[in-house]
Amino acid sequence: MKNKIKKRLVNLNAFLESNKKPGIKVIHALRLEIKHLEAFLELMTIQENFGARPKVPDRLERLFHEAGRVRKFGLEKEAIESITDHNRLLEPRLFLKQLTISEKKSDKKLRKKQKRYPAFKPGDFAKNPGVNLSSDTYRDFMAARASSMADLLKQDILADIRSLHQLRKILKSIVYILPVCKKGVKPVRSFLKTRKRFIESIESKIGSIHDTDFFVRWLEKKHDLIDADEEAALKKIKREWQHDMVSMRKDLKPLLPAVRQFALDLKSQSTVDGRQLTVDR
Q1: Which pLDDT band, with edges at 50, 70 and 90, does 182 fall under?
Q2: What percent of the chain has pLDDT over 90?
Q3: Which residues are CB-contacts of 148 (< 8 A; sequence separation ≥ 6)?
Q4: Prior bond of 57 cis (ω within 30°)
Q5: How far, in Å, CA of 111 to CA of 133, rounded?
Q6: How many H helices and E strands in the chain?
Q7: How far apart are CA 99 and CA 77, in angstroms?
Q8: What is the distance of C-alpha 273 from the center of its chain?
Q9: To the nearest 10°, the Cα dihedral for 36, 41, 47, 48?
Q10: For 103, which of 73, 124, 127, 190 could close a Cys bridge (C-beta 3.0–4.6 Å)?
């Protein structure tokens, strides 16, 4: 796992060393590297001799959180501009200005962290990141993810944005851990390769719902900042977002049985036999 961690730290540490203001693509790449590292840590936690840390370093969490805020404010501005243009609505310029102010504040905080934080190293995630990853660890990780998905899908998950987001995180962690295994690993890896496109499709749909939910909640939270002249336009925008979420949930609903079956199949494939699997260090 040490080499896997090092690979993910290259871009992360390059970000910390850079003096350039990060753009949207850089912020997205930064968050992606952090998500991979979180998944690697979850995997190593299963195997005691890694000496995995209880959680990712606090400064990494703070980077992820602030980068996420910059990303969301940027996406919300784009979404408002798109809706107003498409539906020929009055553009709420004052509210967009407030979003820009919030975006700049978060960007400033992110830049301070970027300049202040030291580089990360594999030892920040585990005491012994170079030990061999056992086949049982890989199988246990996938089996646990399958069980967690099955539990989440027992409830009315479409009505709970937090549970939907948790399902998305599980699906993404499966994709991040998939390359850890070498080509000859069966049956889990072969099964997951055939389902990867499906997994990514579902998590993307949930991501769109989650982002739109954030837009609506932030709009409600900042109601006191809305100028009276823009209130009507923003109410229409909010209704458009709410309508979009209804449509997106409607599109996702018929796919949930397939997600449940995927969870059952993954559980079965992860425990299909006791043969030793070969995995990367």
Answers
A1: low
A2: 68
A3: 166, 170
A4: no
A5: 36
A6: 9, 0
A7: 7
A8: 31
A9: 160
A10: 73
**Distance between CA atoms of 48 and 211, rounded to whole angstroms?**
36
Report pTM.
0.89
**Cβ atoms within 10 Å, residue 237:** 24
8 A C-beta contact, residue 5 and residue 121: no
Q: What pLDDT digit, counting tens, does each position of 19-69 carry? A: 888 888 899 999 999 999 999 999 999 999 999 999 999 999 999 999 999
Nearest-angstrom CA–CA distance, 136 and 86: 52
Q: With cut-offs at 50, 70 and 90, classify the pLDDT of residue 278.
A: very low
209-264 tens-digit pLDDT: 999 999 999 888 877 777 888 888 899 999 999 999 999 999 999 999 999 999 99
Token representation of residue 134 = 């056992």
176 within 8 A of 200, measured Cβ to Cβ = no
* Residue located via tokens 């796992």: 1
Tokens 């609506």 -> residue: 216
Q: Rounded to an integer, what distance in angstroms lies between the CA atom of residue 279 and that of residue 281?
A: 7
